[in-house]
């Protein structure tokens, strides 16, 4: 199983998650992070670290966010690896909790 980054990460990208991942399996786009499903070892350390509560175990991803399972796999193959925390996006607090941000996703 893998963990999955979902909608509420978009335009927030706090990056607290990357610091705790023992296998460095986060990949970074302009305004979203994803987890590589073949590299994640299912340790669950990242889930409580996300201030936006955007990380779920694959079998607990909400019904309306199932598309993010495939999206993490797809984008992890093309985006660069990220292993260190950086500043959140400038408008992170304003976007935290806004529903359905998928159309804001930059690739
Ligand atoms: Fe990394 Fe563990 Fe989170 Fe998977 S569950 S992304 S291995 S911290
Ligand atoms: Fe995104 Fe949460 Fe990590 S907002 S960058 S999944 S800490």
Automatic annotation (TrEMBL):
One of its GO terms (molecular function) is metal ion binding. Keywords: 3Fe-4S, 4Fe-4S, Electron transport, Iron, Iron-sulfur, Metal-binding, Repeat, Transport. It comes from Halopseudomonas bauzanensis. InterPro entries: 4Fe4S_Fe-S-bd, 4Fe4S_Fe_S_CS, 7Fe_ferredoxin, Fd_C, FdxA, RnfB_subfamily. This is Ferredoxin. Residues 1-30, 31-60 form the 4Fe-4S ferredoxin-type domain. The keyword Nucleotide-binding does not apply. SUPFAM superfamilies: 4Fe-4S ferredoxins.
């Amino acid at each position: 199983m893998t963990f999955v980054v979902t909608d509420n990460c978009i335009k927030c990208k706090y990056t607290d998650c990357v610091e705790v991942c023992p296998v460095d399996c986060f990949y970074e786009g302009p305004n979203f992070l994803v987890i590589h499903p073949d590299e994640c070892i299912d340790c669950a350390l990242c889930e409580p670290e996300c201030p936006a509560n955007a990380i779920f175990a694959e079998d607990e991803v909400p019904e309306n966010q199932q598309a993010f399972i495939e999206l993490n796999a797809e984008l992890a193959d093309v985006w660069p690896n990220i292993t260190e925390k950086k500043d959140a996006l400038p408008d992170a607090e304003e976007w935290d909790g806004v529903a359905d941000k998928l159309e804001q996703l930059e690739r």
